[in-house]
Amino acid sequence: MARLHEYQGKQLLADAGIKTPKHVVIRKPSELDAAIAEVGLPAVIKAQAWTTGRASIGAIAFADTAEEAREAVNHMLGLEVKGFPVTEVLFEEKLAIEREFYLGIIIDDANKCPRMIFSSVGGTGIEEIAREHPGKVAHALIDFRWGLRDFEARNAIRKTGVGGKLQVKLAGAAVKLYKVARKSEARSAEINPLVLLESGEIAAADCRVTVDDYAVFRHPELGIEIAREYGHPPTALDKIAYDVEKNDYRGTFYFIEMARGYKKGDKYLGFHGAGGGGSMMSMDALTKRGYMIANFCDTSGNPPASKVYRAAKIILAQPEIDGYFGSGSGVASQEQFHSARGLVKAFRELNLSVPAVIRLGGNMEDEAVRILTEYTKDLAAPVEGYKKDDSADFCAERMQKLLADFTAPAEKLRPRPKPAVNKPYTFKTITGSVTYDHDLCRTCESKVCIETCVPQILKLEDGLPVLAISEEEAAKGKCSECLACEIECAVSGAGGGYVDLPIAGYDEYVKENG
Hints:
Number of helices: 17
Number of strands: 25
Mean pLDDT: 94
Structural class: alpha+beta
Low-confidence stretches: none
CATH architecture of the largest domain: 3-Layer(aba) Sandwich
Distance between the termini: 32 Å
CATH topology of the largest domain: Rossmann fold
Radius of gyration: 28 Å
CATH class of the largest domain: Alpha Beta
Shape: elongated
């Protein structure tokens, strides 16, 4: 599910006719004076962070004076929640509240329909309220054909003991909330609390809206940058990774930063998984040894070598990680040498400077481990490869040993530049391009690129590698970006092959973040 911030959800409610507090979003302290002028005092100030218990960490404050407001805004904009900085603060009018309720529209997967939930005593700990005061919580299943009708909402609310004009007002809010949820294709839309004001009006004092991942592309108006649920707004690196995934349908590439602000020596590792169950098992093996996971990454579902390469580069863009740990399910059906070549290309390009332990269990695992270990021997940091019979716990033990014995290079290693080409022969691939330096190719005796080209799209012409298919076919995916023409050429050929696989925004990110 993709989350909306509170202020975004409240805008949807206001557009549907549900009263919300007057508010302004503050992104820097200098905006406070204008916010006070527009909203007034007293005010409620809330850090826009996707976490429960905001009040307990100082992420919600009440301010009667400009000085109190300034202190709260400065505190919240300097606050980190789950390791990620708060970048937006909601500044809104303080409501005169007489009574609190809970109202939610939730997709009920078991019944395959939306469910309305209403509590007449608020919703903090709605599950506990339902157990301890079952008469105060009511449910109503909603038929998609008709939506939530007013009489259905009133019938549910009546069961909690609320009657009269208040019942009518609350039912009206419920019908409007359903329309918000239906229009935005939300998995859940909750107002907690929905409040009765001293003026007799009903208002949404807080709200939470989460949108179905698969519906996000239909709702650009919601401004959701990444169609999945994070515990924090997506970081710059999250966005770079997501651009890779959304533009390449081949296999899965899921990446999320899980921590920020750590330093070398804090035992944070870059994590590269393949398959959910194996990844969880592998992360457990690391955390048992006191290591922290800097990111979660999954490349599974038979990804091309090029996608594994991009994933590895993005993981290694986290400058303060102490090591690189890759381990998945161990039963992959795809030839694992594809992943090995992707890792080798990334490790060699970046001049890997942290120890790496990679478990490449599955089809052709022997060849995968050979490629991974043989082709990285000259790097400054050790790289070890393991197979499906090597447990995740054993691999974590090896990671611990390598880190204990490793001495980092005295100077920061620079990435290797792209090779200079004297006589290029180039063709486009589905996400990049392949170039052969025919000056070098002329001196090559092995012609290993022809032999190891997995899709067999190359041929020799006057002793030089060229496409055996049209350039259009190569660009549409006939070139699978297996990377053999670069990796094998560098080891067993003349070094004339190079695959360029750009990552949008990557170079700028690395330059800015070291």
